[in-house]
UniProtKB/TrEMBL annotation:
GN (gene name): rpmC
InterPro entries: Ribosomal_uL29 (IPR001854), Ribosomal_uL29_CS (IPR018254), Ribosomal_uL29_sf (IPR036049)
NCBIfam families from the UniProt entry: L29
Gene Ontology CC: ribonucleoprotein complex; ribosome
KW Ribonucleoprotein (keyword) present: yes
Recorded GO MF terms: structural constituent of ribosome
GO biological process: translation
Highest taxon, organism lineage: Bacteria
Protein name: Large ribosomal subunit protein uL29
Family: Belongs to the universal ribosomal protein uL29 family.
One matching Pfam family: Ribosomal_L29
Organism the protein comes from: Lentimicrobium saccharophilum
Record keywords: Ribonucleoprotein, Ribosomal protein
């Protein structure tokens, strides 16, 4: 999933998609342990997508905290 798509999701949708991606990654890892995957790079792609989602959630939390304190917000592209 591209970063632009992740930014467009609401926080609730992002949390829901993050949960789905984590479940899918777990399934892929289990399947790969039983028999080799046709494309093992899928595991890497899911890990990176999860990291992107977690990064976006962290940025949003920092921006919310900064807005509550009235300080500058975190730079988002």
């Amino acid at each position: 999933m591209k970063q632009e798509v992740i930014r467009e999701l609401s926080t609730a949708e992002l949390i829901e998609r993050l949960d789905e991606e984590r479940k899918q990654l777990t399934k892929l890892k289990l399947n790969h342990a039983v028999s080799p995957l046709e494309n093992p790079n899928k595991i890497k792609n899911y890990r990176r997508t999860i990291a992107r989602m977690l990064t976006e959630l962290h940025k949003r939390k920092l921006n919310d905290a900064a807005a509550a304190q009235g300080t500058a917000t975190v730079n988002t592209k």
